[in-house]
Specification:
Layout: E1 3-8, H1 14-23, E2 31-37, E3 43-49, H2 52-55, H3 58-61, E4 68-74, E5 89-91, E6 97-105, H4 108-117, H5 128-141, H6 150-163, E7 166-174, E8 178-183, E9 192-197, E10 202-207, E11 219-223, E12 228-233, E13 238-242, H7 254-259, E14 265-266, E15 269-270, H8 271-289, E16 297-300, H9 306-316, E17 324-326, H10 339-349, E18 350-352, E19 361-366, H11 373-384, E20 389-394, H12 422-428, E21 433-436, H13 439-447, H14 459-462, H15 473-481, H16 483-495
Parallel strand pairs: 16-19, 19-20, 20-21
Antiparallel strand pairs: 1-4, 1-10, 2-3, 2-4, 5-6, 6-7, 7-8, 8-12, 9-10, 9-11, 12-13, 14-15, 17-18
Helix pairs in contact: 4-5, 5-6, 8-9, 8-13, 10-11
Length: 496
């Protein structure tokens, strides 16, 4: 899961892209980058490993001059770690294209072979984003236009849609020409457009989440539709076109559960309100399945579960308390690359307020349970603080399958619910009892915000994938994502 942003304005945009990336930092902590272009068609760029605040110092910002540009924060999903995987990625031909990508291609290996053998393009990494960049670049080069217009660019996007499978929200900078943004034909990963009035023309922002728009002075225009492409030329003219056959809106439901900011709207669904509804539906389920419960207090595991937990407490008419103090300078444990890092970070990340636990029957609420590592550690902390009983509620259903669309889920064998019953998961994490949100209730909680969405991408819960899969893809991905194999590869790289 990554964060992407592009801005086209009358004046220098680097500082605003930097601010936007700070507001998208929750979507990626591995690397960050910015590329900008000025009216003289000079491209300036900076990218490196680390948080946004560490990658960009004042000396770097002073060199990033341009009135249109793009930015990226990376959370690794396909490919390895290292500066060469930081985005935006760049290809010289045609024109000089820089690309920022959120998502994951499921046929990247096949496309990589095609690029090398049939199209004579050399790739420097095994990143699916570099594959996507080169596919788009090759299709644009085939237009054979020295000065491509919106029609040429949209045709290249159409050809890219035909060739690429999986999930992709893309913003690319075409040096000397402008910004192009497009979304896969299922709209799995989010992408929104904002607008504001400049002195002489309209200015635009395109980003993974619209929460950043108002702080930069933009108003939301709309979401980019599945399969649609938007082109903003270097002079600020805005063009859009549907570039896919049979597009369908199937947003990833995990955006509403975990990834997105609560102040964002994803495909016109308020993340905040969706999480409130998740909490209310959890409360209904507890009343049905545990009508004689003895819960004394509801406590969220901060931050993405706090809204659901608060509404759950209100619905059950039980006190809500914040029993954990979060260290804001520790990254999100879900997107840390190795199990040992995740285990160590739990106690560093959360301090406990013992008075909220001592002698009480506590219901802990989290957004989801993935490996169970964090859940087990937190339950242990609650018991150490004197809780009599510790119950656990998950705002999401059991996660049982790989995610192929931009979320770096563990190998299936490392997902705690992959081959266990709910009671077995409860035993594993040492909860007195455990309740999961049902998939039907989760879908209803999200869909209520936008009844026009007929289907969500829910494969981590169902194992049903909405895009074509090449042979052995799941097996290869399983091997790629196993922690033990990741560590072996890192050791091999370090010694070799």
């Amino acid at each position: 899961m990554c964060g992407i942003v592009g801005i086209s304005a009358e004046n220098n945009v680097a500082a605003e892209i930097y601010d936007a990336l700070l507001m998208l930092q929750h979507r990626g902590q591995d690397a960050a980058g910015i590329s900008v272009c000025d009216q003289e068609d000079k491209l300036s760029k900076r990218k490196s490993m680390g948080y946004v605040r560490d990658v960009f110092q004042q000396r770097h910002m002073e060199k990033l001059i341009g009135n249109y540009g793009i930015g990226h924060v990376r959370y690794p999903t396909a490919g390895g770690n290292g500066k060469e995987f930081a985005q935006p990625m760049y290809v010289n031909s045609p024109y000089g294209i820089s690309l920022a990508h959120n998502g994951n291609l499921t046929n990247a290996k096949q496309l990589s072979n095609e690029l090398f053998h049939a199209e004579m393009r050399h790739l420097q990494t095994d990143s699916d984003s570099e594959v996507l960049l080169n596919i788009f670049a090759h299709e644009l080069a085939k237009q054979r236009e020295i000065y491509p217009d919106a029609k040429n660019i949209f045709k290249a996007v159409s050809k890219t849609h035909i060739r690429c499978d999986g999930a992709y929200a893309v913003i690319a900078l075409i040096t000397g020409h402008g910004l192009i943004a497009f979304r896969d034909n299922n709209g799995i990963r989010p992408l929104s457009i904002g607008i504001r009035k400049g002195k002489t023309r309209d200015e635009y922002v395109v980003a993974s989440e619209d929460a950043l728009f108002s702080s930069l002075g933009f108003s939301k225009l709309r979401d980019v539709d599945p399969g649609e492409a938007v082109f903003i030329d270097k002079n600020g003219q805005f063009f859009s076109q549907q570039c896919a056959d049979n597009p369908q809106k199937r947003p990833c439901i995990f955006e509403y559960v975990y990834f997105s900011r609560p102040d964002s709207k994803i495909d016109e669904i308020s993340v905040y309100k969706a999480r409130m509804r998740m909490g209310a539906k959890l409360a209904e389920q507890i009343n049905k399945t545990k009508p004689d419960h003895d819960i004394d207090v509801v406590i969220p595991i901060p931050d993405s579960s706090t809204i659901a937990a608060h509404q759950l407490a209100v619905s059950l008419n039980i006190p809500y308390r914040e029993g954990f103090v979060k260290n804001r300078y520790i990254g999100r444990t879900f997107i840390m690359p190795y199990q040992e890092e995740r285990k160590k970070s739990v106690r560093r990340k959360l301090n406990i307020l013992e008075e909220e636990f001592h002698g009480k029957n506590v219901l802990l609420v989290d957004d989801s349970i993935v490996r169970g590592t964090t859940s087990k550690k937190i339950i242990e902390m609650a018991r150490d603080a004197g809780a009599k009983k510790v119950y656990f509620a998950s705002a999401a259903p059991p996660i049982k399958y790989q995610n192929l669309y931009g979320i770096d889920m563990p190998a299936t064998s490392e997902l705690i619910a992959s081959n266990k019953t709910n009671s077995e998961v409860a035993e594993d994490i040492s909860a007195d009892w455990l309740i999961y949100q049902s998939l039907e209730d989760l879908i209803e909680a999200a869909k209520e915000g936008n009844p026009d969405i007929l289907e969500f991408e829910t494969s981590i819960f169902t194992g049903v994938y909405i895009t074509p899969l090449i042979e052995n893809y799941l097996e290869d991905l399983e091997n790629t994502r196993k922690d033990e194999l990741k560590i072996q590869r890192e050791k091999s790289k370090a010694s070799g």
